[in-house]
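It is worth pausing here to work through a concrete case rather than discussing structure prediction in the abstract. The textbook approach is simple: state the sequence, then state the predicted structure, then interpret. We follow exactly that order.
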Amino acid sequence: MEKLEQYRQWIQQVLAEHNKYKPAHGNIEQFTIFDRQNDRYQLSTVGWDGDRRIFSCLIHIDIKGDKIWIQHDGTEVGVANQLVELGVPKKAIVLGFHDPNARKFTEFAVN
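Step two, the predicted structure:
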């Protein structure tokens, strides 16, 4: 239980850090979603860039069992790397955006 709570805090910390960097153009709102009950966490954007509607998910992370599943990572630095720097073991991180057959070629968990 302590490990789960630590993972939640670290995920929220990483998302909050990324949320500090706002889109440079357009009327775009960026926000975090922390669903602690279901362990789903996102950084999303919504708004307008001129006459173009913007809605996207920059980062989506789930906690499933004892693993952190990175479902989407639209950052350059890599959320997995940031979590490892905070203390999450690589074997506790699944790169869910990779094909299941390709995950075995990464340094991270397969599932």
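Step three, interpretation. The longest strand covers residues 52-64. The first helix runs from residue 2 to 19.
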